[in-house]
Amino acid sequence: MQARKTFAALAVAAVAATGAATAGTANAAQARDSHHSGGQDTSGHNAGHNSGGHGRATAFDRTATYPVFQNRPTGEDPATPTVAEISTVSPDGRTLIYTDALSRRIGFLDISDADKPRGLGTLSLKELGDAEDEPTSVSVVGSYVLVVVNTSDSYTNPSGRMDVIRLRDRERVASFDLGGQPDSIAISHDKRYAAIAIENERDEEATPPGGEEGDLPQAPAGFVQIVDLTGKTPAQWRTRAVPLTKRDGRALPALVDAGLAEPTDPEPEYVSINSRDQLAVTLQENNGVALIDLRTGRIDDVFSAGTASVSGIDTENDGKIDLTGSIKDVPREPDAIGWIDNRYLATANEGDWHGGTRGWTVFDSKTGKVAWDAGNTFERLAVRYGFFNEDRADKKGTEPEGLAIAEFDGTRYAFVGSERSNFIAVYDMTRPTKPVFKQVLPATNGPEGLLPIPSRDLFAVSSEEDDASVNVRASVSLYRLGKGTPAFPTIVSADDKSGAPIGWGALGALSAVPGDKHLLYTATDAAYSPTRILTIDPRKAPAVINKELTVRDADGNPVGYDAEGIYARPQGGFWLGVEGATGAENKLVRLDDKGVTQQVVTLPADVAAGLDKWGFEGVTATTDHGREVVWAALQREVTGDGTGIVRLARYDVTTRLWSFYGYQLGSTTTPGDWIGLSEITVVGDKLAVIERDKLNGPAAKIKRVYTVEMPTVAARRGPVKVLPKTLAYDVLPDLRATNGWTQEKLEGLTVAGDGEVYAISDNDALKDATGETVFLHLGSSKKVFGKQ
């Protein structure tokens, strides 16, 4: 267990480094804040602070991932899109309820066993009203589920209702007209009030007089609806509207004085209630926060969320994770909001049309001033943990959208979710003005609903992205707070020379480092440019990427190769197996120690002509008596070789001659699936390959390591000779053991200098993938491959 404790030390070091790098950024951002100034604590994370003062290490560990398409109505096509957006839980913490706006229904899960959630079916809103009714949020009060429903027929004629559903039998017992299009709902601590943001959202394609497309104002204005949950039955509940404009549509002085973008169109988004029955509501497009007394319906205060200037982030969508960019005086435009205590509240600053500052902020509700801001630290977490979605760099980056605050076992935590980078960052909020980063939780695509369940030490995340055509499915993920080290992460990056985390992702290749017992090399593929060779130290838990080497062409210029395989040569330099977009573009590339291209070897023309886009997927080599032989695996069949027969390519460096052996793939009956090779490495007198299917999640079946005897001579011409294969190791159970979305692209395999075997999954740079990377220590070579 001692080795596992290095994660805590690494996390502390990482946060300390990030805090040091961004302290100036955060201070500068708050000094320039357009609405707040002076006297606030602007320090970064307090790296030395331990969780809640308990003196024991605790962390959230993922227990299960439930794809909600498995909870669809009987007879519905499994490929039909179905999502999980906002979730709530029954008072006993055993039934989770989620909204599926896409399918116009709410779903129910039995989470009594957090390791094995079970679908309990769905309730269609068609049964309660109209087939086009859309649930936007959900919450539970006692034995009732409160579902807020958008029934609008247009942006200019918004409408909505709140249905009260008896949890026991799912019968509607009451319904309330909300007078507009609802977004979020919150319940007060004493269960006396429900508060609903009536957004009446803008039409992004409409152009108001004198404005541009999507601009404000767009009538009718939004407001807040309070529901008094008093009386013996829900039928006795009453609603009270809190207008955020005057009756004639003019702006309220409080909103004008706060300097909001367009006070006649407040656009309320997200609500949270403290223990004093004070409501905080974000006015996202207006970059503001309103505070309302629920007892009286009076507006206590309105303040601007201000602007921030953030440096040390990636602002260019150019295929390179480059943390030297900056944004200046950008509105925060907060989405989710949560009270930390009765004074301080936090916002996730996703942004909307004009803003988004890639982090989150703590405000002092008494003054409306910034008490703490994440600066660049939230985005840098995404980079360090391999989750950064570079495709969004020129927009809103990580887009922190969801936020939840809850107390577990005496410690108050903040959970901040990244919509575009598929993770949740967890912070200790014991000191509200000095959040302490604790860990990152991996999620499936589009984490939207963050649901703490403190009574059972559980935390749930509902994710809304669903596209069966690429095996991205919406899910509910569960995590349990406990002692010990969580299974995630398995690999992270250290800081580079500038103090920024080394950017990484799409790691589909592995090689041992010659002359070192432990270290490994990996390489980034075509998802990033230029190509980089990264050094991994697997002795730490998680493993650490601690060095990077940029690959260059023969003229010394940075170059982008689709490096699907890497082999570090004992005599110096590297071989890369480069996959091409066409058969002719596949090549072996030899680099020197500095990463500069020394030699390019293309496939024979007849072989290249028989390939589609699936080419080289791994490379390895042997050197006997000074004679170097390079082996490469082709992922799919060459035309004419026969069904399921792929080639193992042998290149004799001395004679410069290619020859080819055959490998018989397994078969699949799943529509749209195929089997291929994704790695090759030398193990004694054998070649080990990864054979895998194209499936992920619960559908994944084949993630295996096989061996074949390594021929010592070139293959004869003619039909390729198929080498008998032997199953060495089934990796699927190891991938399933993460309790997450089983990763598709098991692509890297190597044996380190000490004989330990490692494998890694390619996270596809978050394109049609969750973005999670799984780095596996499979055991000793003797255990995996037997005696050599």
From TrEMBL:
PANTHER family, sorted: MESENCHYME-SPECIFIC CELL SURFACE GLYCOPROTEIN
Xref: Pfam families: choice_anch_I (PF22494), Phytase-like (PF13449)
Region of interest called Disordered, as start-end residue ranges on this chain: 26-58, 68-87
Organism this protein belongs to: Actinopolymorpha pittospori
Source taxonomy: Bacteria, Bacillati, Actinomycetota, Actinomycetes, Propionibacteriales
Name of this chain's protein: Esterase-like activity of phytase
Record keywords: Signal
Domain Phytase-like: 503-764
Family annotation (InterPro entries): Choice_anch_I, Mesenchyme-surface_protein, Phytase-like_dom, Quino_amine_DH_bsu, WD40/YVTN_repeat-like_dom_sf
Gene3D superfamilies: YVTN repeat-like/Quinoprotein amine dehydrogenase (2.130.10.10)
Record's keyword annotation contains Signal: yes
Span of the signal peptide: 1-28
Superkingdom classification of source: Bacteria
Keyword Phosphoprotein: no
Domain Choice-of-anchor I: 356-438
